[in-house]
Structures are given as C-alpha cells and as structure tokens.
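Protocol step 4 of 6: structure prediction from sequence.
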Amino acid sequence: MSISQKTIPDFISVLASKEAVPGGGGASALVGAVGAALGNMVGSLTTGKKKYASVEAEIIELKKKSTALQDELIALIDKDAEDFEPLSKAYGLPCETEEQKAEKAKIMEKCLKDACATPFKIMEKCAEGIKLCEQFALKGSRLALSDAGVGVAFCKAALLGASLNVFINTKAMKDRVYAEKINKEAGALIAEYEALADKVFSSVKASFV
C-alpha cells in the first residue's frame, strides 16, 4: 500500500515514528491537498444556487482545477517518499577510502537534487491552491467563506513547510550555483504567495471580526 492510501490514523502513526518516510514533504503535500479541498467545498456549496448564478460557470471551472490539484498533491505524497528514500540510504554509504568518498559525494549530489525537486513542486502546487482559494473567497457562497479562509491558511502552511524541505537539501549541495538558483525560485514563491495568503485570510477574518 502506498503512503497516500493509508488511513488517516495509520498515516499519522507512521509520520510520528522513526521511519524515514513520510516526512515533512509528504505531510506538506497532504495539508496542501486538504487546503485545496476546502476551497473546492466552497465551490460545491455555491453551484446550483440562484444567488450565485452569475458566477456558476466560473465556480465550475475553479472546482475542476481544485479537483485536479488535490489529485496532484496526493500523488506528490508518494513521490516525495520515493525521492527521499535513496537520499536516506546515501547518507549511510561507506566513506573510508578516497574512492568511497568520491562515489558517495557523487551519489549524494544526485539524491539531494532529486529529493529537492518534489518539495519544490509541492510549493508550486500550494501556490496554485492559494490562488484558487482566493477566487473561492471572492466568488463563492458567503455561508462557506470561513472554509475558503481555512483552505488558504492550510495552503500557506503547506507552502512554507515544503520550502524547508527544499532548503535543507540545497544547503547540503556542492553545486552552489544550482542550489542558489533553487533557493531564489523558492524564495520568490514564498514572497508572492505568503503575502497573497495573508491578504486573503485577513479579508476573510475581517468579515467575521
């Protein structure tokens, strides 16, 4: 059974254990999927309502995007585990001789780049989730507005969580040009979408407080 197919209690139990996977990356993907689903729920509670007939077509399109995003993030739970396991094993490679050290360094560099790629993809998908939740908050049913706010908060948390899994891997890379490129791209995602998520959340909160 893949990690993403585990029951919620089993996933949480394994996450709390000393098993290498799932870890922060997989957990971030799960939280992002939940955030996207909350936005999607707002859409579900909006469609078919006469009051929102003017945005019906837009909401249906947003729901399609959200459903696809949920599926992509769930798939990234397993992809993150798949990419991280080789890295966890690479740390244990022998390095007593110069040849072993060179071989380990070569393998480690490849594994670090692979292990970095999926958390970065999770960041990109969470950014999409934030934009979708923004639209659901603007156009969706006012009765479900709080769910759009929770959704954007979850997507923001997942974005930031995934970023740490990017940065921990880029820090260990020998190829500093590549590492700094990824760091810059990840930083740009945080700068743009953390601010957007905060704006959406504050707007939702202001509707109640």
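Step 5 (inspection) to follow. The mean pLDDT is 96.
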